[in-house]
Amino acid sequence: MLWQNNGAIMNTIKLTKPELMVAGLVGNMRSISSLGNLVQNKHSPTDSQWQIDVDGAAAEMAFAKWLDVYYEPSVNTFKAPDVGVMQVRSTKHEHGKLIIRANDKKDEIVVLVINRMPTYTMAGWIRTNEAKQDKYLYDPNGKGAPAWMVPQINLNKMEDLNVKTLSTDSARPNHPVGEENG
């Protein structure tokens, strides 16, 4: 069930305080887990890795809530899908772009969520192979981490995401929160 109002799909979700606390804990666990792994934030000139991890977990939770599916929090699963078979990316910028990186899997669905805690808006989605076009390639921070940055106007509408045809079986291996990957 997608969130609807008089038959129209609603693209905005509000997380409750308890949901935000869980997202905060998951994000904190991700940051702490990566300590000492020489993980360098090449993607944001202003946000700490801590903030990026918390924002990412909250966006994943909001998207799962929008889909009306259970949010399965994870740590150290990296390129495994975030919700069902889909990746979730977030931005705090109202007109922010969806970022696709070179190591993203081919033909994976990536959803952009706009973070206005506690309110989250599902901005749109795209398949990675559709996003990897030269016109979107950009190195926004000059840190040697070029990425494809797709404007929201070029994303598919959320109502065009046919979630009924996507497998929602767990697409990642069983992975309890906090368990370390070797």
Describe the fold and architecture.
The protein is an alpha+beta fold and 182 residues long. It has a 4-stranded mixed beta sheet. Helix content is 23%, strand content 21%. The N and C termini lie far apart (37 Å). The longest helix has 19 residues, at 49-67. It has helices at residues 17-34, 49-67, 128-131, and strands at 4-5, 8-9, 12-14, 87-91, 98-100, 109-116, 119-127, 137-138, 147-150. The protein has one domain. Helix 1 crosses helix 2 (49-67). Strand 8 (137-138) and strand 9 form a beta hairpin. The model is unreliable at 167-182 (pLDDT under 50).
Summarize this structure briefly:
By secondary structure, the protein is α+β, with helices and mostly antiparallel strands. It has helices at residues 17-34, 49-67, 128-131; strands at residues 4-5, 8-9, 12-14, 87-91, 98-100, 109-116, 119-127, 137-138, 147-150.
Shape descriptor reads: globular
Overall helicity = 10-25%
> What does the radius of gyration come to?
16 Å
Domain count: 1
- Provide a count of the helices: 3
- Tell me the strand order in the biggest sheet: 3-7-6-4
Portion of residues in beta strands equals 15-25%
